[in-house]
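INFO  loader      accepted 1 record
INFO  loader      residues=254
INFO  predictor   begin
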Amino acid sequence: MSGSGGDDGKLGRAESGAIANVVREELARRRMSRRALADHARISISTLEKALAGSRPFTLATLVRLEEALDRRLREPHSTPAATPPATGFAPAELGSYSRPAMSWIEGEYLTLRPSFGDPAAIYAYRTDIAWSDETSRMVFREGERIDAAFTQFGDVSAPHQSGHIYLVTNRLGQHRLIVLSRPTIEGAMYGVLTTLQAGRGSQLTPVAAAIAFLPLKRGAPAAAGRIGPRDADYARFRSHLDRVKQDGFAVLM
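INFO  predictor   done
INFO  writer      dumping tokens
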């Protein structure tokens, strides 16, 4: 039958076609190349290309690796999924129980700056979008225009009243990345600290913390992206924003 997997671990043609459509949509939404996805999923680019073109069905092994790389289920579940909780207009308690109107000021697009992990003298820049999700009833964020698209992050926004800070939380299969930001300045900028894992040689990952700045962008405005070096026109301005994290007491880096 075309809709079920065979004994050789290959999926049926209909199911493979549906999965290919989902993968293509994810690549477009994340602005991610097929090569980056293949590398992240540890499969050959040839295998991915043939599966997406329909000339070779997906195997269970390939599907599992793609699901891990994209951190989402690609197959339709065989059982009836649990109903999505109704949107309440309030974030869940573990994110601060904030309402959408109370957090509307944070919605928008931001130029995000942090030190480059590969070049200590450079600055790494990309875009971060923050918006309300009716489906999950919370603010969510998603990065874009990263030159290392395979490491694009997305997750939830937490805003507890007690601390007065904003937390951008990524949780992928138990692996966390955290950004702690100040409330916006009068210019709308937010400053704070990023804690994440830095990729080293081979499969080595090392915890790293760095200053980070979020600068508001006009909707749809172009943003600098990639590695900004000392000779680039925007470098001095971007460096001054990162320096504010320590100089103006937005965070203490020991």
